[in-house]
């Protein structure tokens, strides 16, 4: 992590700026939406608030994935499951808030249960009429699933692509399960038709702005927490596990505990993202468990730059803005663009946007440093006798996760 | 099963009906026309006997209609029709062919009246008629019908038929039909006990339902015998059910094997996670579709050969695409398995969308050649031809692949590269070539899997999506880099899945299997048959 130390001051400043920007938009955007008249040039329309609020939730999800993938080397293809579970917990609370205003007017049972001839509320729906209970479940359900899953997987040293595949199988199994009508989660229609959150109308502009502000603040908080984790001694351990798991283990650390911690924290973050997402889009259905959704999250993190904190946020915002633009203008080409993005990022941009920026900045700075130490009138680059120092710095800053690779050769999957 | 059986029966009956020549049909029509002139019941009965005397199974339809009271005479031209009430009017059907030949108001036609004597005469005539049919299949069908609708009056015609029957298997069926009739008659108890024993020996679902009725309606020794026979049949049927489940499981396993076997090569030999594998399967299926379209439009006679023609083409198409992917993308990502996974996922999205753009998002119709449609029975086991062929095909592909891997120089090089890449390279093996060809081979195998899967699945751009997770599960479960592991993995997963389905339902069964695999990987992270070696993870 030579680059990390090299630009330590710069990285910290970047985190501070990100948190500042997030807190600022948490205040400014709702103000511009609510207090400014719709005719003004500074007015932010409600749909933009809702859309960017959604993007912020995606950014939080991408940040959660980055914590395990970028810093701990665990490529989880099942983070959409934690996101959706958090969303379902929030959705259940919102369903209970509908009360007797549903289509069937049943004061206790949500509409779909009346429709499916449920006699009484299933036991796991009890307590969800209280916000505090739902909030605990938003944290507990994804966290517990991740803990149990990770405990089994990491203890038996399921690593690399095997782990990716079984996380994908996990979200696939949950997808199938939630599609079933008799699971008690609304089957393939999911939960929708929400009315109130904490007594306020979900559709109202003020509530939407509040949810937007909550998303931005939560994201800022998550950035801080991630930064604190990554910067601590534990964070160093995470990266050690990422770069050389066996070596870390031989040094006496329990690699499985390190990974389990990161995985669980990340799942909880994903769950919170889902809980903030659901009231803003107004629906949660089993489609959120689709394995393809989880893989899309991976590409957000990859585009922005994994192993950085700001990267996944930028990636999620850029890719989703691109998706919204494409599906509006050229709907048939979005999948081509997304597929091309997967290929292009892995081939040409392995460190993502932020990583490229850093290495470009690093090169520039090192070149400047070289030209100062070499008083040969800026001919350092052309003189073959002088080995350019920037190369040495660059070669040490490896792509996260490729420490184990002995070279560009296929490795039999053992 | 009952449905297929019913369809089979109808087909048999139709076959029996198609046999008479046109001359005989004219004779029959002449006799049927006499119904119009018959003025009383005895005259009608004479016509019935005359019809029965022809011994032609085609008279079943008019006679059956007569017994039901559905035979009408049109007043205008004294022609005889089968009538079916349709709203206010009556739909007129031809008495022999059953085809629609017009409508009539109720006032335009007269019903041919029947009484009980006449009905009995018709039934006897029908019984003896089909029991005496020349075609054994028609006689089997008659025996089957009589078995399902037992009646004491059937006993005598059956006795006569049994006496004159020469084919042993048909005779056994006739005896069972007679036994069924004996059970509903007022024959002595000893006869009934013998009949229960005879029917119990039949051991299928029809016997079961018959005996259940007998158990409910009789008492004493007959009831006890029926209870015992039912228990006996139930245990036999449970065995057959288990057999049927195993067959379904093997069938699912063969599908999984086909989908996973190419993956076993790319994943096992090269360690490449090819998320676009499912799309190779899809490309194979679409190649089959294109081949069939060309054949339909230009060479309709070759349709039965369409799959055989599609096989090499699908292999080439998928292998070529695989080669392009390997040279264009994967080559640069060796040693970075997670990135390979992402890049191939991107490739899969592009391929899917490309196919969607070219062929449209809807399902395409791929037909079954004649030798792949239909089904047959082994005992109580229904086996469809296409599933059987797919099983044979999957095993064939497996055998060929095993031969290539173990007996050809190319396979030797592949295995050498798997075991120790650097040593293989120093022995002069061009490992990049081996990689590219191995990937092409794996993709090509996926392509021919697509040909087979197009026969049982919807050919849509999403075809591959459904198989990718299952295929990975099979490969990981069986053990990476081991073809036998893939074989065992595919069949055990298929069978476990089908055995769970009756208890848990299809979806829950699948979930349980996924959870079991996840737990299994905890226990044996390298699968059932792990490669043994000294390589340590970095």
TrEMBL record, chain A:
Q: Where are the transmembrane segments?
A: 15-35, 42-62, 68-91, 103-125, 131-154, 161-179, 210-230, 258-278, 298-319, 326-349
**Which GO molecular-function terms appear in the entry?**
branched-chain amino acid transmembrane transporter activity
Q: Which InterPro entries match?
A: ABC_transp_permease, ABC_transptr_urea_perm_UrtC, LivM-like
Q: According to its record, how does it sit in the membrane? A: Multi-pass membrane protein
Task: Give Gene Ontology CC terms.
Answer: plasma membrane
Write out the entry's keywords from A to Z: Cell membrane, Membrane, Transmembrane, Transmembrane helix
**Where does the UniProt annotation locate this protein?**
Cell membrane
Chief subcellular location equals membrane
Which Pfam families does this one have?
BPD_transp_2
Instruction: Write the protein's name.
Output: Putative branched-chain amino acid ABC transporter (Permease protein)
Please name the source species.
Mesorhizobium prunaredense
From TrEMBL, chain B:
Membrane topology is: Multi-pass membrane protein
Q: InterPro entries, alphabetically? A: ABC_transp_permease, ABC_UrtB_bac, BCAA_transport_permease
Superkingdom field: Bacteria
Q: Which GO terms describe its cellular component?
A: plasma membrane
| Pfam families tied to this protein | BPD_transp_2
Q: Output the Gene Ontology terms for molecular function.
A: transmembrane transporter activity
Keywords of the record, alphabetical order, are: Amino-acid transport, Cell membrane, Membrane, Signal, Transmembrane, Transmembrane helix, Transport
Transcription regulation found in the keyword field: no
Tell me which Gene Ontology terms the entry assigns under biological process.
Answer: amino acid transport
Q: Where is the signal peptide?
A: 1-23
Q: Where are the transmembrane segments?
A: 246-273, 305-325, 388-405, 436-456, 468-491, 503-521
The record's subcellular location field reads: Cell membrane
Membership in a protein family: Belongs to the binding-protein-dependent transport system permease family. LivHM subfamily.
**Protein name as it appears in the record:** Urea ABC transporter permease
Q: Which organism is it from?
A: Mesorhizobium prunaredense
Taxonomic lineage = Bacteria, Pseudomonadati, Pseudomonadota, Alphaproteobacteria, Hyphomicrobiales
